[in-house]
Amino acid sequence: MSDAAKALSVSDLNKHARQALERDLGEVWVEGELSNVSKPASGHIYFTLKDDRAQVRCALFRQRARFVAAPLRDGDQVKLRGRVSLFEPRGDYQLIAEAVQAAGLGELLAAFERLKAQLEAEGVFANARPLPYPPRKLLILSSATGAAIRDVLAVLKARWPLADVTLIPVPVQGAEAAPAMIAALGLLNRQARLDPARDAILITRGGGSLEDLWAFNNEHLARAIFHSRLPVMSAVGHEVDTTLADYAADLRAPTPSAAAERLVPDGQALVQALARHEARLARAMQARLERDSQRLDTLRARLRHPGERLAQQRRHVDTLAQRLHRAARLALTQQQHRVAQLCRRMESQDMARLHQGEQARLTQLSRRLEGAMARGLHDHRARLSSAARELNAISPLAVLGRGYAIAQDEAGQVVRRAKDVTPGQALSLRLGEGRLSVEVKRRYQK
């Protein structure tokens, strides 16, 4: 009953199951075939991912679905990155997809995972230095003609026109991209020794396929970012894209525009906030002046000559002394009355009669206790005799005492049927008193 009292509710059970799945499995890559693809008006995508032996229900929510380039169709072979979870209201086990891509990129992904594990073991992903906010001189490594640099510059101009930005044009795709970015990082770090105002680097490019972004998965580029004296922010691709450069950088932004928003404050918002604070300060100062003026008027009205205040306090002390004297006399009178009353009550009591009454009561209670003990002892003896009779009635020895016997073979097993023995077999008979060793001469089935 104690275990049943601790039973979980169904909602608690599903909650614990969801937490265990999300905690123990974390993020996984899964490959399979799409089926039952559903795209309701909410913008979310629901589908089943299956292979020839199993299937799992999946959900791709709207904010992630908009980054999937190709439409999802039944029969497509895909790889998706997601986390295992459980939909608590129905207890449905499901996979929450974070990114979906067509299958066939297995070698690149395997190489990416190998490099990621190797660099993580080396400590290349341990950077977490804070970037200056806002940076005095921001150095941007990106393509001079790409959409990413246009987005970054537009956001910086709108939010913080005072930003001092230097663009270092480098290729961001192809075989020459990684060496060019490594060389640029080395040059910028050397120049930073001569110009301490250069205090932050942004590496960025727009979205693309895994092959387009592969330059940012170069292990030498990741090491160069890790060893950079200047803090580095990485903003490569869309929100779902993750590269080794992102892991090696001190800070990652999901998109180029988001990187610009994180690097500098919103100037217009600061101006508006400053105006609000200025108005609040003016109101607070005016209110403080008014309160202090009123308080000064009140204090001026309350100000009196010290002699008048002393006379008032002297009168108050005299009043208190009179009240104390009256209270002391009243308390003394009350205590005297109480003492006299108690004395009269004690004189009126007959102590001998009280003692005799208590002695009689004690004698009566002693007799009642002895009677109760005798009755209890008699009841327990009767119950013990009854239990002994019942035990003797069901005892096998009592049955043997009425002339019955128990037959046992050489192994001590009780013989219940004649066919279980053979002629000439030795048996032991247990009687009500003692045992007999006998030999079987003949068997009778009835």
TrEMBL record:
Record gene name: xseA
Family: Belongs to the XseA family.
Job of this protein: Bidirectionally degrades single-stranded DNA into large acid-insoluble oligonucleotides, which are then degraded further into small acid-soluble oligonucleotides.
Keyword annotations of the record: Cytoplasm, Exonuclease, Hydrolase, Nuclease
Location of this chain's protein in the cell: Cytoplasm
Protein name: Exodeoxyribonuclease 7 large subunit
Catalysed reactions, as listed in the record: Exonucleolytic cleavage in either 5'- to 3'- or 3'- to 5'-direction to yield nucleoside 5'-phosphates
Enzyme's top EC category: hydrolase
Pfam assignment, any one: Exonuc_VII_L
Assembly behavior: Heterooligomer composed of large and small subunits.
Residue intervals of the OB-fold nucleic acid binding domain: 8-100
Lineage: Bacteria, Pseudomonadati, Pseudomonadota, Gammaproteobacteria, Oceanospirillales
EC number, UniProt record: 3.1.11.6
Annotated Exonuclease VII large subunit C-terminal domain residues: 127-438
Domain of life: Bacteria
Keyword Hydrolase in record: yes
